[in-house]
Amino acid sequence: KLVETSKRLAAYQAVKDYLLPEYTRVGIGSGSTVVYVVEAIAALGPAVTSKMAFYPTGSQSEELIEAAGLDLQYISKLPAGRQLDVAFDGADEVDDDLNLIKGGGACLWQEKIVAASAKQFVCVADFRKLSPSLGTAWKKGIPIEVLPMAAPRVLDELQRMGSQNPRIRPGLPGKAGAIVTDNGLWIIDAPFAPLLLSKGTEPGDGNNGVWTVDALADALIKIPGVAEIGLFY
Ligand code: DER
């Protein structure tokens, strides 16, 4: 109950503070906190929302926008040179530097594209998500979207980089085999020792078992077969 109330309060506050009435293009992330973001936006009423277009980050996000009766548009149709005014999304973990682990909902690739297409990215996270360094609260690992045929090679490389027991995310009941993302790919969850803040003072290049967020992100994205990683930094 406390968690749901916290998510809802955070979402309504974020919309109040960051969705300005003059905005016309709004990104909508994925997950359960974003459900409250859309609820808060819809509560503004058509007088405000009818002037806005809403851009999804996957099938769940699309459904939320449509179910709320909001105008559904797509980032693929955004005119060249234009940006979204703001994008709202959740996170799995947030460190003191506002680095994020995202991808708990397996929507990280489109989420990162939409976030990067917005002038302002608003992350809505309840008290559970705050942690001194990434990997201390969210222990399931960094979500990494991969081409299925490369998954074994990526797992090998993650082991070599010091990930503790990286694994392909299994499907939920009703889906035999691996989770398949909205993009037709798989997710590998790769736990690493707690990541230092991106301004980490130690040489966080993995040799001493710890990484700075930016050093790890740079290393992960280079692994052949990796499409995108669930580190926003
Ligand atoms: O997959 C994601 O990155 C989502 O934003 C997700 O991690 C947040 O989920 P929650 O709002 O249900 O905690």
From TrEMBL:
Superkingdom of source: Eukaryota
Entry's transmembrane regions: none
GO cellular component annotations of the record: cytoplasm
Chemical reaction(s) catalysed: aldehydo-D-ribose 5-phosphate = D-ribulose 5-phosphate
GO molecular function: ribose-5-phosphate isomerase activity
The EC number(s) this enzyme carries: 5.3.1.6
Pathway: Carbohydrate degradation; pentose phosphate pathway; D-ribose 5-phosphate from D-ribulose 5-phosphate (non-oxidative stage): step 1/1
EC category: isomerase
Signal peptide extent: none
BP term (GO), one: pentose-phosphate shunt, non-oxidative branch
Keywords carried by this UniProt record: Isomerase
Family: Belongs to the ribose 5-phosphate isomerase family.
Protein name, as recorded: Ribose-5-phosphate isomerase
